[in-house]
Specification:
By secondary structure, the protein is an alpha/beta fold. The chain contains 11 helices and 10 strands. The chain has a 6-stranded parallel sheet, sandwiched between helices. A two-stranded parallel sheet has the order 5-10.
Length: about 300
């Protein structure tokens, strides 16, 4: 089997982890929107199908992440997440590369979830980020895929891993500094996926030619409440987490202040920390017919340990 793999967005959080994960069995060519390290490609405008002809898989990770500060224009999401995906997917179709993997997001389907989100849910994204991801998905699905080629759209939930940035860091700072976690009144369940489990799935999709093309949610096997997550952080760093049951109306007032002033929390961050967002991984688990390497808690503990 051809051992060459192309990864766009290779310098990002998922890209750096995936490149390292695949390095033992593959030759990974990484490209970014600015520069390619392995080949002299300075922008995606110079990206050609000849670059893909010698590769067995193209993994398209490059994109504009959801901006928690809401400073990005909607057009930026569509320029990067939609139009760029169209460009590289068209090049894939013109090439001899056999497998295309697009890293979308569960946010292409829903910003809020009741019960468990599965692949049968009718997409109804609210944010420009989610809409731009869905538009890219719809373009890919609208194209005719040649016989012998495979195309996968992956919808991961919140990805975490060594040294990643995001809400886990905020929670870690609460516990490590002895600051009480103030959202004990909120009872929620949400899904996570460790970057190691995500990389494992990607590798299986590359190697197992019997897995049908299509859309697959990516998540760890179990969901956790944010309070449980805070307690896990305490276990890892050897410091018991302090949890406060501050009334929700007061939390909302503090969050509103954070929307306008520098503050550890704002409305969107509170919502993300306390919302229910459970994602089903049954379809991908059945497809690969294998056990994920890490349990939800073990993966989180590995990530948190790198914050120390």
């Amino acid at each position: 089997m051809n051992k060459n793999i192309v990864i766009s967005g290779v310098t990002g959080f998922v890209g750096t982890n995936l490149k390292k994960y695949l390095a033992s069995g593959y030759i990974v060519f990484g490209i970014s929107r600015v520069v390619s390290f392995e080949k002299n490609i300075t922008s995606y405008n110079e990206f050609s199908n000849s670059y893909l002809d010698d590769s067995t898989a193209f993994i398209h990770l490059a994109g504009k992440a959801h901006d928690l500060k809401n400073t990005s224009e909607g057009s930026e999401y569509f320029e990067v997440n939609t139009e760029l995906t169209k460009t590289v997917f068209n090049e894939f179709l013109k090439s001899n590369c056999k497998t295309f993997i697009y890293m979308s997001s569960v946010k292409a389907v829903a910003d809020k979830v009741d019960g468990f989100l599965d692949e049968e849910a009718i997409p109804n994204p609210i944010t420009a980020y989610g809409k731009s991801k869905l538009a890219a998905e719809e373009y890919i699905l609208s194209q005719s895929i040649p016989i012998g080629r495979r195309v996968y759209i992956l919808r991961p939930c919140m990805i975490h891993g060594p040294n990643n940035k995001g809400n886990l860091n905020l929670l870690y700072s609460f516990v490590s500094k002895g600051i009480p976690y103030p959202f004990g009144k909120y009872k929620n369940q949400r899904s996570f996926v460790s970057v190691e489990n995500l990389c494992f799935v990607v590798k299986e999709l590359i190697e197992n030619k019997n897995i049908d093309s299509g859309i697959y949610n990516i998540a760890d096997d179990t969901s956790l409440s944010t309070t449980e997550l805070v307690q896990v952080i305490g276990e890892v760093i050897g410091k018991k987490a302090k949890i406060l049951n501050i009334p929700k109306p007061i939390i909302k007032i503090l969050a509103k202040i954070g929307d306008f002033l520098p503050f550890p929390i704002n409305s969107e961050r509170v919502e993300k920390l306390t919302e229910n967002y459970c994602v089903s991984n049954l379809k991908i688990k059945k497809a690969i017919n294998m056990v994920l390497p890490l349990s939800a808690k073990k993966g989180l503990k590995k990530t948190i340990a790198t914050f120390k």
